[in-house]
Design a protein that fits this description.
The protein is an all-beta fold and 218 residues long. The protein contains no helices and 21 strands.
Length: 218
Amino acid sequence: LMTRPNIWDLSTGQALGTLTGHSGVVTSLAISPDGQTLVSGSEDQTIKIWEFGTGWELRTLNGHSSQVNSLAISADGQTLVSGSRGQTIKVWELSTGHELRTFSERFSRLAISPDGQTLISGSADNTIKIWQLSTGKELLTLTGHSHGVTCLAISPDGQTLISGSADRRIKIWDLSTGQELGTLTGHYGTVTCLAISADGRTLVSGSEDQTIKVWRVV
């Protein structure tokens, strides 16, 4: 377990630097869309914002009262959303570190829609909630998983939400209506991570069953 984020050259695998500052394990990372800013969340209850190219620490956000375990940045790079083990979700202005609002919500994973209008939270209570990011208003609750939601992904066009769960299933949803469009089965352990290709046609899932599966999404 690491208390310091490391930066690597993806083409060579060479370590480029180590960022020091957190006093607890680093639990979550996010990179701004322009690639200039790195955000880290930690068990030390803080969020740190770094200049990616230099490794300089720009600011520390102190708002959570328990471990920070999830981060998401909006596609326009203006908004940071963080979640903590204390069942609190906070929305920040990324450029200034100003706290905009707080959600009191039990959750496990977070995602922001490409248009920056919608926040999605997956929960250990088996549900997914869709929120209006600007106001904190709850818009929809999606039910269908039989165990906790462990990961989320949104299609590049913002129309489709994909969720993975401890029930070993992957579900596909219409993000605007909350309608369940389908279920993918094949994993024999908790689905731990999801990624969608840039064209929105290919889904990749990882699982505690020690496999990675590639799916064609039509």
